[in-house]
Amino acid sequence: MLISVLLILPFACSCLMLASSSRDVNSAFRLGLFSTAMPLVLATALVMIGGQQIESRAWFSFLEIDFGFSLYGHGLSLWMAWLTSLLCFLAFAYSKEALNFGVKKFAVGMLALEGTIIGAFLSAKNLVQFLFFFEAMILPAAMIIALYGGLKRRRAVITFSLYTLVGSIPLLFGAWYLIMKAGSDDVTVLIETVRGLPLATQSSLFVAFAIAFAVKTPVFPFHGWQGISYSEAPYPLSAILSGAMAKVGIFGFAVWTIPLFNNADYTFCLIPIALFSAFYGAVLALKQINIKRLLAFSSMSHLGLALAGLFCLDATVNAGVAVMLVGHGLTAGGLFFFGGIAQKWTGSTNIKSYGAFASTNPVYAFIFGFLSIAAIAVPTTIGFVGEFLILQGLFNSGLPLFGAIGGICIICSAAYMLRLIKNVLFGAVPARDYVSLSKFEGATAVPIILLIIYFGLHPAPILDSFNVEEKTTVVNEADMREFERFMEELLKNMNEQGFELVPEEDAVEENNDEQ
Q1: Contact 18/108 with Cβ under 8 angstroms?
Q2: CA distances from residue 117 to 166, 218, 240, 247, 420 in whole angstroms, order as listed
Q3: What are the C-alpha distances in Å from 341 to residues 33, 226, 418, 438, 515?
Q4: pTM of the predicted protein model
């Protein structure tokens, strides 16, 4: 029941915002803040409860095929839904100072986008349901870019929409073919159907699925939409695109591509592609002077490394991938927020025109510096745990070269983030008059910093969510041993009290002798 409410709540709140008045900006902001806070509270409760949250029901029938609607929350899906709700709440709180108009419309679009992203993360059982949310998230994202984007927002909307829609065409045809063959869109039936198909057909379907998810992540060479979309989108939306929406592509690989095409050759050949994408993204980030494009290609690099870890097909590494995705969402979201503040103060996205913020605003310098260092994944931050497990998996994958390339990507991330710190905080531009953070801008950084440190020191809540079944088995065995000891003590005490208990087989033999 709770997981259904989590899916419905953002859409219901979006409709509520649409029906509300927009005359009073402060009232609209308070209602939007409350509306984005409710999914976050519920998602946090589901994460704390843990375990598997499953709800299934019939959806519709077409061509004698019954399509189901199932919500599945466990491990990666629950944590990604929680991350999405957190970033949407913080993005809307941040928008109080970032947006000069249209608070109501922004809240409507943000809540609709949040609902579609959460719907995709909770759709791991029925393929048509996943495809519905996978495509639906394009509309609210494009709407927000069109309304609140930069000077080139029209080009950004067209590029973003065309790339994602065209990239999904092979997936739609492949999914339709596979569903018609299987007679169902349930993942377990689809897995059995794929195993019975010719190898050439399996390969074609694998490519169709992989292209769509590679575009969404994005992975080289399907990253052409990322630079302009991230740079022209408003900073709150850029934080959502990088911190949450890009994760849907990796989630698609994790719950659809890898289970359906359970062939080590397919996944192993994608490791070098993912690593090259990570390295290429790092090189592009090193060349950028536009802060939004730098953070966009930084995101491409980190997600490429996470994708390479996912293709190692190791349970421990998968848990590390989840930790890295949560950490990347926190750091990337925070950097986009505070990069937007720097642009507001200077009127420029060029990092060379910033500088001296360490003198004019030490609080801002501390927050931005901390987020930048956390993006490098130093010890005691959440990124360190995820990247360490991923590198370990790459070294153990069969080719130590993979681990070496992953390490080079991490070194490159340190290079461009330190360069960013130097230009933003200690640049050559003379110190400006003191500028202060608003209460909403400062409050946005508090939960991000606390969560980065908390999960960096205690990543067990995320790591343990991937071992629920193993934990349950251990607990059951322990209970059984405790029960056996209890029965032995009980029998011993009863014998000492004069009761003679005869085993069941012996009792049957005695009854037969008497007869």
Answers
A1: yes
A2: 19, 16, 10, 9, 30
A3: 20, 21, 19, 10, 94
A4: 0.85
